[in-house]
Amino acid sequence: MQNIFIFKKSKKGITINPSTPPSASGGSKGGQGGFLNEDKPIAFFGMRACDISALKLIDKVFLEGPVRDQKYDLLRRNAVIIAVNCLYPGDNCFCNSMGAGPEIKDSFDIAITELDDSFLFEIGTVAGEKINKGHVISNKGLDRPMDRFLECIQEYQVEYSTALHSGIKRDTSASPYFVGPISRLDLNHDKLPFEIRDVMKESGITLPITNTQMGIIARSIEIAYAFHEAIRIIRSYERHDNLSINFEMRPGEATWITEAPRGILIHRYKVDERGYIKSCSIISPTSQNLGHIERDIYHFLQNNMDKSADFVKKGSEGIVRGYDPCISCSVHIIT
Hints:
Blueprint: E1 5-10, E2 13-18, E3 42-47, H1 49-63, H2 70-77, E4 79-84, H3 94-97, E5 110-114, E6 119-123, H4 126-132, E7 135-137, E8 143-145, H5 146-149, E9 153-157, E10 164-170, E11 173-175, H6 181-188, H7 194-202, H8 215-236, E12 252-260, E13 263-271, E14 277-283, H9 285-303, H10 309-323, H11 327-330
Parallel strand pairs: 3-4, 4-5
Antiparallel strand pairs: 1-2, 5-6, 7-8, 9-10, 10-11, 12-13, 13-14
Helix pairs in contact: 9-10
């Protein structure tokens, strides 16, 4: 996290001291506190159920009122809530008087419960999951760790193609699934900066997007976010002395999934004690989308059988480019 806040007691009460000095444009009298930088990620550690209840009331004032506070909105979206369950609440605590606990039930990223000899971590949000380990999710309820996602999919070949297809396992068959900009936008649009969400609203862009030919719209939104994120990184950049990590080779097997421009890219490797790769699986975004591409083309052809060959060819190529801007030319998909 970029900012760490230390809570100290004083005669005037509890103040918040940033780990870095306040900027010239912000600060507090005597240096006892500082303004939060809403552009940087922050973590609120140790929040109790009553604290979260109070925070939800503040959210209503600043986010759900007649005027949405944009700086507060950005601050909240950059904040990670690491909460702690109360094991021994007092009789006069807000837990009892306000019905706010002691168990923390929602509005947290990670909730910690102290056990006899260990700590229990409960993941509450995607942001909390990222701290722990990334999951693959879908709009149909799929939620799997990366190393278990391969258990959910099946690669298969069709008679008329040498390309491998991918599908979600459904009993004895595999159903096509869809990855890429539209999927990212539909599942993560609440993480977009308010400036981009406002422009989307003004432009009449509604979510979720269900038309696969609107991929260019999703890509445009992602480009806008890329510029926004690049500016944030430049402004908050901090030089690090250690630019590489020392490691020792050892045998093992691992799976990693990353978001490439066209969708999730899956890598799985098995390495022996000498560092040699014994087996490897790489599943590209386009191969995962092949089933969807073919389905879209099939429906397009069924609805345009009376059109000219040139119209059908260009329309089919347009469908393919909606998923992958290069493949229709690189492999001459339409002949």
